């Protein structure tokens, strides 16, 4: 598969990194993000595109035209709609790579939406935060075209691995993992905000470190976990709603997943109620945030 250009839908954290690293290799990257339609956000996206050397488009349809590969990197709540919109402009010979964190059933519905266009569909699951390793972030792939795409992407510096020919298996792996990972973030947020209220956080963290000495409870881990909720809680809540659907479809009641939704979204809502955005909290300090929330 020759990859000299790509269409990218979603220009957030992950999308921006993919765009930058691919453009740096001489690949033409044409991008659309729905925030371009918001006057107060358009300027920052235009500046970002100029800095990274990518071309902004005014619609999903224009971003997907005449490129061999389209990568969808949007929020969980928008993933299926993006696939349906892209399907109206894509055609045979093109490939749609869906890296969004959604349930297997959502990926299968997105694949079905692309079928009439003749375009191919690859289920992709990003298995770690993108910023640290960038293109080397582990990505699992599934679908009939996954093997060829994996070879093409890995030649560009990606770290993809094919896990199934069926759509939904890669996504299921990610969804099950998210129960644990997003759950740990939510548990840490609830645990330490409560401990801070009682002045008990030092002893609680010392006890956690004694029980799990390799995890970093005596270092940066607590702040990192809570910062992920504070920065990305709304997007993570949408993902966890998809996780809950994944769990329910397996015949298991998603009690924990639904509670994680509330905690992830709840912290972001509480920060917004203070009139703040995540950037206003820099440098991030979970104790200071806990104190501000408690005083509100």
Automatic annotation (TrEMBL):
Residues 195-265 form the Phosphogluconate dehydrogenase NAD-binding putative C-terminal domain. It holds the Pfam family NAD_binding_2. InterPro entries: 6-PGluconate_DH-like_C_sf, 6PGD_dom2, 6PGDH_NADP-bd, HIBADH-related_NP60_sf, NAD(P)-bd_dom_sf, Pgluconate_DH_NAD-bd_C. Keywords: Oxidoreductase. GO terms for molecular function: NADP binding; oxidoreductase activity. Signal peptide: none annotated. This is 6-phosphogluconate dehydrogenase.
